[in-house]
Amino acid sequence: MRLAALAAAAILGAAFTLPAFAETKPVTPAPTPAAPLPADPYTWLEEMQGKRALAWVNRENARSLAVLKGDPRYEPLHQDALRIVNATDRIAYPSLIGRAVFNFWQDPVNVRGLWRRTTQADYAGAAPNWETVLDIDALSKTEKANWVWKGANCPPPNYDRCLVSLSDGGEDATDEREFDLKTKAFVPGGFHLPHSKQSADWLDDDTLILTRDWGPGTMTASGYGFVVKTLKRGQSLDQATEVFRGQASDVAVDPTVLHDAKGNKATIIVRAVSFFETEYRLVTPHGLVKLPLPLKSQIQGLFDGQLLVTLNQDWAVAPGEPTLAQGSLIALNLKDLEAGQPPRTDLLLQPTARQSIEQVATTRDRVVAALYDNVRGGLLTFAHAGDQWTRGGLPVAPNSSVGVVTASDLDNSLYYSVEGFLEPSRLSQADAATGQSSVVKTLPARFDASRDVVEQFETASSDGTMIPYFVVHPKDMKLDGSNPTMLYAYGGFQASMLPSYSAAVGKLWLERGGVYVLANIRGGGEFGPAWHEAGLKTHRQLIYDDFAAVGRDLIARKITSPRRLGIEGGSNGGLLMGVEFNQHPDLWHAVVIQVPLLDMLRFEQIGAGASWVGEYGSVTKPDELAFLKTISPYHNLKAGVAYPEPFFVTSTKDDRVTPVHARKMAALMEQMRLPFFFFENTNGGHAASANLQERAERTALEFTYLIRKLMD
Fold first, then answer.
1. CATH assignment of 91-213?
2. N or C: which end of the chain has fewer CB within 10 A?
3. Catalytic residue among 417, 571, 611, 651
């Protein structure tokens, strides 16, 4: 499901993790504000490809790049970054399709990438014999296109036909084409869904169920389709049959088809009435059946005829029944749901207040859950027999992050990764049923971690809540306030910031004596739904207070000082950076603002902004408008204030948040004669980089800026 994956997408590398937001059209209807909004002199920069706007971008790019690339440290940093991203000994992470291992691979020769496959036995070896399935560079050359790989949907039971998703330059909008894995070619006359923001799944070998832009009046203000149709092989799009129609006020309506190892199938229409509230409907031979789930819940999969669901709110299943707690993983009987009867409901796992379920996957005989305890990961397994569920586990190193990479419902094969700030990623192959596992791939160390150590601290926020954070620092660090320190956080959309191995941070920052800090502020999901909800809408200042509290605690511990403290965040984290830049200019000396939201009075009209009202609130409500006015970075900028000199990083091809926010705030700073750096990549989508070479350039620019500001 599209919305289920949004908060899990890690798109800027291990140390720069951003959830993917909802898709959108570039222009959305203007909401009616509860009070008049201030005049905006820079709306002309909202024309993504406008001649005047791009001339401004080109000028600012040239000015900033001349300084940053002109720094003698840039090129060595760039070469280090290139060696990291282009290394051929990095882990080729697997994706199981049927019994084969697939991988998408990019390197200096295959810039756009190769989709390739091998056997599981061959993959376990040191040098797998990869077979190329689709060459994106060759395809782009042949079609004279700027294709960026967006994945493939290859359903059971045959696993031989796929819908391949291709994007123009990294946009969220895709071109979907039917692909034959046997012939390794697009199917002549097969399914082809042209460029649109769309979502499609397979009902059977000859039928798709999909949503897309069907024409005027079929897209939400957030840019999602809300009309679901079925499309038979050989039909044109205008011959598709409507199955369900949501409302234009919805965030999105998406279809998904779930399968389990026993041949059960559930076709579900997911209607997101807000970003965090969802209705689910089963498609049955007798019509649509609305599922009796609470609005704040998320379907995780299908297993042994049981629908797996995580709860983001307490749920009283039925009168007299025990209330199931927020954060729990439950299973509901599919046949009961299809019949419209109260379903048998089983509780698999109820996390404590300091735990969270970060991931759920299934194999043939096991449900697998990644459970985090005080931001440290573990893997649990669950078996189902009759009316009973039994629990097991898989081995995970202590004080690590863990994630299921891919799993098979043909057997109990499972690949999962384990990593830490200083421990390179290790990929294990496991049998989820027996619990046996072995490490099959280990990322070679990309930096010298022998001189560093990781500590976890806590500090009290403005309301007394204790906020945990990790500090990665030299073992011999002097507590004299002189240590160059980079503080990173996200703080939104229930996205957890977890320990991860970042070669770029290690090589370009830690090896130079820098300190790296990851703050687990509210708004994230580190301690379950309640940790997220504490900072929603008009309560959002708590998130910003949490971050400032961590900064002050670093200074109080004499780990660093305002002169040596820099901050970084992207997307929603870019908004966080903008707020901290405004509210506490005296605490930081460097601010990296990546693909940000910054205009919080017009955000509902920009990119996918209308879909995020559940997170931020809306200008149509007086109390929410009043609050948004207090935090909007674009509107709280003041001439004459001694702000740190920030670095805005964005992308012309970002059709999600869009570059508009960064452009407008930078232009306002220019008018106020406030210094800043600005870089807008012409490719890359919301990742601000479409390939490894662009990622290396962006990384080197950011660390050049940080070194100039914090180490000089």
1. 2.130.10.120
2. C
3. 571
